[in-house]
Structure prediction request, 455 residues.
Amino acid sequence: MKKNVAGNTSLFDYEGKPSLAKSIPLGIQHVLAMIVGNVTPSIMVAAATGMTMDERTLLVQTGLLIAGIATFMQLFAFKQIGARLPVIMGISFSYIPVLLAIGSEYGIAAIFGAQLIGSLAAVIMGFFIKPIRKYFPPIVAGTVVLTIGLSLYPIGVNYMAGGIGSPTYGSLLNWLVAIIVLATVLICNNYGKGIFKLASILVGILAGYLLALPLGMVDFTPLASADWVALPKPFHFGIEFYPTAAISMVVMYVVNAIQSVGDFSSTTVGGFNREVTDAELAGGIKSYGLSSAIASMIGALPTATYSQNVGIVASTKVVARRVFAIAASIVIVAGLIPKFGAFMTTIPYAVLGGATISVFGMITMTGIKLITQEEMSNRNMSIVGLSVALGMGITQVPAALANFPDWFMMVFGRSPVVIATLMALFLNVVIPKKSLEEEQKERESLDEQELIKSS
Prediction:
């Protein structure tokens, strides 16, 4: 990165200080790209854990607040904590399968306890990222991401139907609204330009919301009780520790730390035309873990780098830190305004489902893209096939583990991501590495031996 010099107003220099007239619109662009992804996981977890309307608003509010704080931590590194790269942080969908499993079994306080332990594991991992990376090649990381995407589909479909427990669940009206939202997202994403393409999910939600209003699907009750300004309430939801929940979250934090390596790498390649350094990776992962630890204390869900914002960096080449600081500031201000958080909770589930199902699809395709970076040898197909089969299969048939101890069921029977991750790691180590060419030669050799025996 270039050192800052007097008069440096470049948008394409990390230390550049472009005018506010240029920086603010670009910062807002990043906010629009991340805001829905940041809010939706909080709404999902709040619904699954039976929170009151006020608690849902608070969870959304703290999620916005920690997103801004986590982004600032990455932008302004301190004591080797932070990547000093133009990235946007926010609440991650990747944790949803495990969060819902923990929340349904033990409650929201257990989520934050497991999150705290998992985040500390991520901080420790930051110190050893260089030697650990070799255990997470694209075939392993891709298998995990693929499983995350597949495991989110039932959630997306249930939301499109109106949300489990809703008196209108499965109604034609819910499906109509959800399909219109999905169509809007697809049109903007494939035919739109500029902000309509970059914020296609937001545009889809706005269209769905406007459609849902006259249909009587929007409940403004949460807005009435929400304050205009409020500070976070540390430990408001409590914090409890369960070993089985903690183990699941440690696995997820390790997985997401490796996944963030891809985002940091894409940022430096796309924005600076260079590879990411070990120091940037270590600082970025330490900061990711520390920000999630802070999140667990103020009542916010785990954070991660946002790939959609990495995509904006790669396409625009705008890397000036001021732009990203403005985006983080906007998100923090939104997090201090409960009215905004309450408004976000009024979005009907059918609207959220129509928008997020495409996100879940993209997560799945990202996993496939990672997997296909490596050749599809028998070895690699075995790793992917067995890991996904066991991960998805066991969790879809929970009765299969009925005779196992409760702790085993909690760790391995609730989230397919945990099983798929452990299986992919194990198989990658124990199955000998062979290329397609080597496998072909082995087959030819066996064929020759069979011919000799038969003759």
Q: What stands out?
A: The beta strands are 89-91, 303-305.
